[in-house]
Amino acid sequence: MKSTLSPFPSTRPRRQVLAILLCAASAAPGWAAPPDSKTLNIVGPWEVHSLEPSRNGYIFTRLQVAETLVTVDNQGALVPGLASGWEVSANQLSWRFTLRPGARFHDGTAVTAADTVAALERARKNPGVLANVPLQKISADKDVVVFALSRPFTPLPAFLVNYSTQILAPSAYGADGNVKAVVGTGPYKVTLAQPPQKVETARFDGWAGSKPAIEKVAYLAVGRGETRNLMATSGQADVVFTHDPANFDRLRANKTLTLQTQPIPRTVYIKVNAAHPALKDVATRRAMSLALDRVGMASAILHEPKAAATQLFPASMAEWHVPGLQPLTRDLSQARALLASAGWIPGPDGILRRDGKPFKVTLRTYADRPELPVLAAAIQAQLREVGIDMAVAIANSSEIPAGHKDGTLELALVARNYSLVPDPVGTLLEDFGPSGGDWGAMGWASASLRDAISALSSTYDGQRRSRQRGAIATVIQADLPVIPVAWYQHSATSHRRMANVSFDPLEISYRITQMQWTR
Amino acid sequence: MGPLLRGVVRLALRAAAVGGIVGVVSFLLMRALPGDAAYRIAAGRYGYDMVNSAAAEAVRQELGLDRPWWVQLGAWMADLLQGRLGRSLVTGDAVLAELAHQWGHTLLLALAAWALALAMGLAGGSLVALARKAWLDRAMGSLGLALKATPTFVVGLVLAIVLAEWAQWLPAAGHGGPEHLVLPGLALALGLAAGLGLVTLHSMRQVLASPSVAFAQTKGLPPTAVMCRHVLRNAAVPVVAYAGTQLVLLMEGVVVVESFFAWPGVGHALIHALVARDIPMVQGTALCMGWLFVLLNSAVDGLCWLLDPRLQHQEAP
């Protein structure tokens, strides 16, 4: 029987068929962000295991749900947060922070000084930055929160930017004292908190400031770098934080995305056990520093030659970076000469020996920051060139403070954050205390460094402060209790749907209130 | 005792034995790991920027980690007998509540993947067997082997690149809507479907070549009747047994797929709990996995017993 069906119209242009197919595909239940969608999708690597401010509180300050008394502006300067202003007494022992008039919690109640004191007292009891503040008492005086100190401490406002000091409403806590909901005072309120991966927020109508353009926000924690990449390139996410440097080229090539990389106050350095027999003399530490090819590592591993550290503080930390300091560079012959002067003699296998003992050390690092193990492998190869046999142990990040405490740590490669408190003094106080610091010096102490840090905590005199900051960088550069390797680069992409996207190098806020839709 | 009652009693005994063994063994294994648990838990709670000796000491005091191990294990066992699984050391929430949230996601993903694999594998295997084409057999064998040999992670990555990045038909990761289920489900299902397809193919081929089928055809039964009465049920026994064992593989795959697709399930949680030394969480998760295996194994045994009359003449499973 002859077929009655007409044959497929071969005259129909192939392009037309393709167009029909594509239309069918796009009509299929696709997720591809509809244009009327008013939800901003943010993806980052940080999981939300807990609503407790001292643990994952940074998620809620970044999402602008919870506020701290003090915050920072786009230039990194301290500006009023939940406190509208502050003043310090003449003897510098009493600080008064006045609460913003008319501030309301997301449950509708007014913010009182007593609530604020209660939240801060809670923060004091939990691990966090307040442990380093010489606090005697926090009290409420009408709408003012009063901090009584035992000694002058100029960086107090900077400490009150840290997420662990965020102020939550009394209704945020359950009967057992744990946080059951993040009831803050920011321009956004939590509409869904689904640990460990999802937080959704919406504009808070009681916010007294100007109304943000973004109505709803969804934050998704995605641990794997390749997945975050795909979420950016597929257009599923509007803003994606922390990309693997190996993908930078691919992301730059994508027309729908803007990749921003910028230095942040975080330095990758080698923490050295200066009490270890092989590492105790400065000549050996300097030789190790001279053996490092920082520019090579920055270019090949971090994909940013400018990330090579020439001193502890990056150039972006203008007040702390000392331009005149002799930069840390590579010089293998000088490194070998220094090692020889320290009594190290190459053995038959090429490994250095002193008093019959080979130069064998172990460097611990952790994989939470994916570059660290790769950098460790490069450092291993570079030190081998001058005859140092360094093993690499990739472990949990906590093995570093644990090894510091029990004295078993030899070397550690870490990425140290100088913006936990937007004044690096906060981190320095912890790292270079009288007995070193869990993440800083080990078996090394310097009276002049300690004096400089404590002078910085008590003086407002600009010139004197600048001198002390210079002294800190200089002492560390000369003695190398930590050997700087690279200045960390922060990376993030935004979709072209978004306008006014800028990234906070201090990682305090996502600046959602400043963002806008382009269409 | 009836066969059903005997089956239930046996199931309860297995569950109790598995529960005790898994709980104690996972506790002892976690204790035997090197490193100080207080530091690990502090790192899990406060992150790598904030973990230090002070935080670790605070954790040790709060959780009583310096108590003797048998006191800690005893406390967990006492909790278990009262139907509680303790509290997560990292989040402080009840393990049972956390598991309920995660198991929901994992079971949804696993069942979707399994159903998808069954549909693809059974249909593919049977159709190829019935077609009786040598080249099709070989093609199916090669494709199946290739899919089975490819790690789930790679399958997931390729699927996400093609369907999410290029075509932009599906979300690359996340959870919440049915569209989020497709990529992780497919990533898990493809490997499973390959195995199931091959087993179905072999089983069908064997049954089709058996004298009973030849006899049924010779006596003049129509092909559909031969299929329904003689082929399917006979061929199903090894397939069901195989599909049961594949659930173990599925659980393995879930761990990888969940972290790749940011799926908040048990596998994802287990990795975090292991890293952070969250012993009650590990015990709770392992316990639930153990019980799930007991339940599934019994279900598969039961199904095989129903399908295969020869087993019914022996004894109940």
3D structure, described in words:
The complex is a heterodimer of chains A (519) and B (317). Chain A is built from 14 helices and 21 strands. With 519 residues, chain A is of the alpha+beta class. Chain A folds into three domains: 37-65 and 186-256 and 496-519, D-Maltodextrin-Binding Protein, domain 2 (3-Layer(aba) Sandwich), CATH 3.40.190; 70-170, Alpha-Beta Complex (Dipeptide-binding Protein, domain 1), CATH 3.90.76; 265-488, Dipeptide-binding Protein, domain 3 (Roll), CATH 3.10.105.10. In chain A, the strands form five sheets. A ten-stranded mixed β-sheet of chain A has the order 8-9-10-1-11-19-12-18-16-17, sandwiched between helices. A four-stranded antiparallel β-sheet of chain A has the order 4-5-7-6, covered by helices on one side. In chain A, strand 2 and strand 3 (78-80) form a beta hairpin. In chain A, helix 7 runs antiparallel to helix 9 and helix 13 (447-456) runs antiparallel to helix 14. By secondary structure, chain B is mainly α. Helix content of chain B is 80%, strand content 0%. Chain B has 13 helices and no strands. The longest helix of chain B has 38 residues, at 223-260. Chain B is flat and about 85 Å long. Chains A and B meet through helix 2, helix 5 and helix 11 of A and helix 2, helix 3, helix 7 and helix 11 of B.
What would a concise description of this structure say?
The complex is a heterodimer of chains A (519) and B (317). With 519 residues, chain A is of the alpha+beta class. In chain A, 27% of the residues lie in helices and 23% in strands.
